[in-house]
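Pipeline run #58 for the internal structure catalog. This entry was flagged by the ingest filter as a single-chain record with no existing model, so it goes straight to prediction. Upstream metadata was stripped on purpose; only the residue string is passed forward. Reviewer on rotation: M.T. Logging verbosity set to normal.
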Amino acid sequence: MADYAISFKLSALRELEQLPAPTGRRIFLAIQGLATTPRPRGGRKLSGSQASYRLRVGDSRVLYR
């Protein structure tokens, strides 16, 4: 299976950089995992959208398309 490309909005990168290091690393690793598994266990489709999903990482949520 081919990997998917991961791209970030500039605002998302800024927010990720402002998080405490352990939290930021945990979220970044979860996002990297989306390249090989775009619909991981625990990921949910957002209602009202055809291609948007969310993934909980601890107390945070990652929104992605």
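catalog note: The chain has one domain: 10-64.
catalog note: The longest helix spans residues 21-33.
status: ready for reviewer M.T.
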